[in-house]
Amino acid sequence: MSNSPQAPALIGTHRGAQIGVTGREPAVRELLALSGRALPLLRAWVDENPRLGVARALLTLATGDSLSDAELREELVVAHRDAQEADQRSVSLVYGVFLHTHRQYRLTADHLVEHFAHWPGDEVASLLLDAFAACGDPAQRAHGDELVERQCARTGSDDWPWLGRLAWTRAEQGRQEEALELAALALDRHPRAGLAAHARAHAEQEEGAGPASTAFLDDWLAADPQAVQFKHLNWHAALQSIACGDFADARRRADEVLGRADVGMRSATNWRLLLAGQQPAGRCDLDHVRALLAAPGGMAEVFHTFNLALALAVEAATDDLAALARRAADDERPAYQDVLAPVVRSLAAITAGRSRQAVELLTPLGAAVEQLGGVRVEREIVQDTLARALADVGEHTRAAELLHQRVTTRRHHVYEDLLLASAS
User: Fold this and answer.
1) Contacts of 370 (CB under 8 A, 6+ apart)
2) Where are the alpha helices (DSSP H) in 208-301?
3) Exposed, middle or buried by CB within 10 Å (0-12, 13-18, 19+), for 305?
4) Given CB 3.0 to 4.6 Å as the disulfide criterion, which of 83, 210, 230, 424 pairs with 90?
5) Using H for helix, E for strand and C for coil, what is the string for 82-117?
6) Rounded to whole angstroms, how far apart are CA atoms 125 and 160?
7) What is the pLDDT of residues 35-57, one digit of tens each?
8) Total Cβ atoms within 10 A of residue 364
C-alpha cells in the first residue's frame, strides 16, 4: 500500500507506542455519529496527542474540503509518519484517508477491501465507505454493499455505526422496510446516530411520509443544530414538504437554511418547485454558478456538474446550458458524454420551451442515469423532468406510467400529481 506513488512519503521516524483507535474514543464516536461536537473534539484530540497519526488523519478527513492541496498533503504526510509508530492498522487507516481526501475513490475502494480483510468490522474505516458509490460504477457500488453486509454480520445487532451503515445501504437498494427497521435499531442503541437518521430520511422519502418525516427530522436536528447533516436533512424535510404540497415550508427551509455555498441543494429544491408549477425559493447568483463551472475542477465530478446544470436551469440560462452540454459531450469520460450531455441538453430544451426535444433526449437514458452519481432521491429529479416534459406535450399516459410506482406507494404525492397535470 505505502509503495503506491499516490502515498505520502515518510519523513523520518519516531519512537513511542500508540494506542489503537476505536469507536469508543469520544471524538471518533461523535464523528461516526456525524455530530456537531465531532470537529472541536477532533481538534482537542490532536492538540493533546500531536503524534497520534489516526487522530490527525481523521481531523484532516473532516476538514479536507477547506484545505489546499499542499495543506492536505502536509497533514497526511505527518499523520502517515506518526502512524508508523503505532501499528499496521493505523498505517492502513491513514493511507485510506489519504486516498479518499485526494478523491481517488476507486483506489480507496480497493484499499478498503484489503483493510477489512485484515481488520473486520473496523468502525473507523467505515467512514470511508462512500468511496464505493463515488466511483460512479454500479459494480463497485454493489461490491461496497456486499462489504457492508459482511461487516455488519460480523459485528452483530448492538453495533450502531454498522447498523446505520447497513440501513443506509438498504435504503439505496430500495429495500425501505428493512432500512427503517435497521435505522430504528441503530437509533435505539444511539439516538444521535447520524447515518441512521439519514437512512430513515431516505426511506421515508420513498414512502412519501410527509409531515411525519419532517417532524422527526426537526426534532432530531433540534438537539444538535451544528450537526454535520443539518443543512442536508433540512433539504430532505423540504422535499417531504413538496411531496405533501406544503410549498411555503419548502421555500422557507431553502431560504433560511441553505446559503450561497449550497448551490446543489437549493437548485434541486427550486427545480422541483418549478416543475410543479410553484414559485421557487430565493435563487442562486448566476455569475456565481458560472464562476464555479469555470474554476479549476469545476467539472471534475459529474454529480457536482449536474447540480450546477440544475442551477442554470432554475435561472432559465439556456445559452449557458447549451455551452455546458457541448463541454460535456466533448469530455472523454463516458458519464459526461453519454449521460450528462443529454441531460443538460434536455434542461436547455425545457428552458427554451422545447419539451418534445427534452422527451427525446431523456427517454433513452433509463438506468444509465445512475452514472450521474449521487443517491436515488437526488437522481430522481431526472425522472421528474421527463414526466413534466411528457405531460407538457400531452403524453399523459406515458407520464403516468413513469410515475406509477411513486403515486401508488407514497402516502403523500401532491408533487407527482402536479407533475402529471396538464400544461396550463
Assistant:
1) 138, 379
2) 211-222, 230-243, 247-257, 263-275, 286-294
3) buried
4) 83
5) HHCCCCHHHHHHHHHHHHHHCCCHHHHHHHHHHHHH
6) 15
7) 999 999 999 999 999 999 999 99
8) 9
